Task: inverse folding
């Protein structure tokens, strides 16, 4: 895993020294090596930078930027089938100086152009500078496992693995995008392509962009879309055998590395299947890692220990104390580029720190729920939507709900939860499709609450995929939104904060395409995954009620972390940052302390304010100091 950075600087605001400072903000992503290249043109200066975490061919032969004829490459990720592609390239007359997948990507692009990406199985974000055409081509993997931010202004085109380096560019516009804030309040994360900043975007998964350096024109294209495979479903007789075969190949490909590899083992179906398959094909016990909690209502460590014992892995367990988790919370604003309110980032960072003591690469079970209909919310929403569809005169019912005087509910604390249910019902009645109703149902702040919190409103909605199953429509929505914008962000930043490479075997596109192509009857409640896993261990080890990777965050906020609420949600700081309406925040705090709105709202607001303090206010202070220093 690595970090990449590129700047096309038309104003010539930066020199090599400043670019190196920008690049060093990615050092945690690549502590093993640094590389940079500068190209000076009449119209601009072009900077390419790379921080390397050495995983495959750890020699200096993997140094980046890597060059071949008129092409230069900076790359973050892994292409697991690079050896196979390398042989094809050799047959086409290419020779190789390294054993890296980096060189395979570079020469694949030289031979096949943009179509090279169709051959790659892996997670990646890479940029190629073509000095002949004077263009930059940037690719992001099909799922969005690896991040890619970019910004285009009159003065510069910039791209990076994280926002941090871009924010260090002189005169970079750090204006907050209130539409992105609205998206964050709804979901607890920001949907791509938006970012928290107005002039910066994320490249969408399965997309590439071409930037013409002379004309400053930017073209974006999609090279892969999961909808295509849902819309062409086929029945198969040996579906379990076929899935097992594809899974075994994909999982074992993820074990390719020249450094130690381990597995995050939660005790759930997905991570248990990963551990079971890679252990069966390993000659030695693999390393597995689990975080447990003193609060048994949040603890799954015993399940993981039983599975590790059955499989014979070299298992490491850490029972997390409250103090460990509280220490991580203070680090979150610097770990994450944008406001991010998934509290499971805390145990994910802790288990990453644990794993890094023994390995440099770790496999996880992420993606299984989105591909194999694992979330209980899918079936619940399917039933709820069926009921809503039967309501006569839906528009009239919605108008009647709009007549309910909101202040009555807000003044009576006991009715706050009832008020939210009524508002969510009203918002769900606004939609005729299950996907947007699903998003309303899962929202943290409703549309009405967002209007009270910020001055602008942006309520995310999306086109429904052309598939017949309502369950699959929700799965596709999560695959394109929740998976890349929440889960992959969480895993990438948490692992990278410890210089650990995270790999997600379920997100091999061969598995994804196969899962999409089989009927929902095989996938509902992970039916087919359970059948595969039962071939590796007794069902009594994994058949149980699904449990999330959670922590008792609300009780901590009322006790040990109350000082953070007092500081960051104070009237002084809310008004100073000028994003939220303090009157409404104070009302939410009052309800929270009275235990009347025991959900994620306060945590979402706290994470935003802490992020703002770390990433926006601190930059403003630094800029003022630099100006004073230069006088």
Result:
């Amino acid at each position: 895993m690595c970090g990449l950075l590129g700047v096309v600087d038309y104003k010539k605001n930066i020199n090599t020294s400043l670019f190196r400072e920008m690049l060093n903000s990615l050092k945690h992503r690549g502590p093993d090596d640094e590389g940079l290249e500068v190209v000076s043109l009449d119209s601009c200066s072009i900077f390419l930078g790379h921080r390397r975490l050495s995983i495959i061919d750890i020699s200096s032969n993997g140094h980046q930027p890597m060059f071949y004829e008129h092409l230069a490459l900076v790359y973050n990720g892994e292409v697991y089938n690079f050896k196979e592609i390398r042989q094809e390239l050799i047959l086409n007359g290419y020779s190789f100086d390294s054993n890296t997948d980096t060189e395979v990507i570079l020469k694949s692009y030289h031979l096949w152009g943009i179509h090279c990406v169709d051959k790659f199985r892996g997670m990646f974000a890479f940029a190629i500078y073509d000095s002949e055409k004077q263009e930059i081509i940037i690719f992001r993997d099909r799922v969005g496992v690896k991040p890619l931010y970019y910004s285009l202004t009159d003065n510069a085109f910039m791209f990076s693995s994280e926002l941090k380096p871009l924010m260090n560019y002189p005169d970079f516009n750090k204006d907050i995008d209130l539409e992105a804030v609205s998206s964050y309040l709804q979901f607890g994360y920001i949907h791509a392509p938006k970012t928290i900043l107005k002039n910066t975007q994320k490249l969408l998964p399965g997309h590439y962009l071409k930037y013409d350096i002379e004309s400053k024109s930017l073209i974006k294209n999609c090279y892969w879309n999961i909808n295509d495979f849902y819309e062409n479903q086929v029945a198969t007789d040996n579906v379990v055998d076929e899935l097992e075969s594809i899974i075994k190949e994909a999982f074992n490909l993820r074990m390719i590395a020249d450094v130690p590899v381990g597995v995050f083992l939660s005790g759930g179906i997905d991570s248990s299947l990963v551990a079971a398959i890679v252990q069966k094909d390993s000659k030695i016990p693999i390393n597995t890692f689990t975080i447990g909690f003193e609060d048994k209502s949040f603890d799954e460590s015993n399940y993981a220990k039983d599975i590790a014992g059955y499989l014979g892995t070299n298992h490491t367990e850490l029972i997390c104390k409250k103090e460990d988790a509280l220490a991580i919370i203070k680090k979150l604003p610097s770990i994450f580029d944008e406001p991010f309110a998934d509290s499971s980032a805390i145990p994910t960072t802790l288990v990453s720190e644990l794993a890094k003591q023994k390995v440099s690469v770790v496999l996880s079970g992420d993606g299984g729920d989105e591909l194999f209909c694992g979330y209980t919310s899918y079936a619940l929403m399917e039933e709820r939507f069926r009921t809503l569809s039967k309501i006569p005169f839906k528009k009239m019912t919605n108008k009647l709900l709009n007549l309910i005087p909101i202040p009555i509910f807000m003044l009576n604390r006991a009715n706050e939860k009832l008020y939210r249910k009524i508002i969510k019902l009203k918002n769900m009645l606004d939609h005729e499709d299950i996907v947007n109703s699903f998003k309303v149902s899962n929202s943290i702040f409703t549309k009405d609450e967002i209007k009270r919190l910020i001055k602008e409103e942006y309520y995310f909605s999306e086109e429904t995929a052309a598939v017949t199953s309502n369950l699959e429509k929700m799965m596709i929505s999560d695959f394109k939104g929740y998976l890349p914008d929440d889960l992959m962000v969480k895993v990438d930043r948490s692992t990278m904060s410890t210089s650990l490479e995270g790999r997600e075997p379920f997100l091999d596109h061969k598995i994804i395409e196969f899962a999409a192509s089989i009927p929902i009857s095989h996938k509902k409640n992970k039916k087919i995954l359970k059948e595969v896993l039962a071939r590796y261990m007794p069902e009594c080890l994994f058949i149980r009620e699904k449990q999330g990777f959670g922590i008792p965050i609300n009780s901590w906020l009322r006790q040990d972390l109350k000082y953070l609420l007092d500081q960051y949600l104070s009237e002084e700081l809310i008004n100073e940052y000028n994003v939220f309406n303090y009157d409404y925040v104070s009302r939410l705090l009052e309800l929270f302390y009275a235990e009347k709105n025991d959900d994620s709202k306060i945590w979402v607001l706290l994470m935003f304010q802490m992020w703002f303090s770390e990433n926006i206010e601190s930059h403003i202070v630094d800029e003022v100091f630099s100006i004073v220093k230069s006088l």
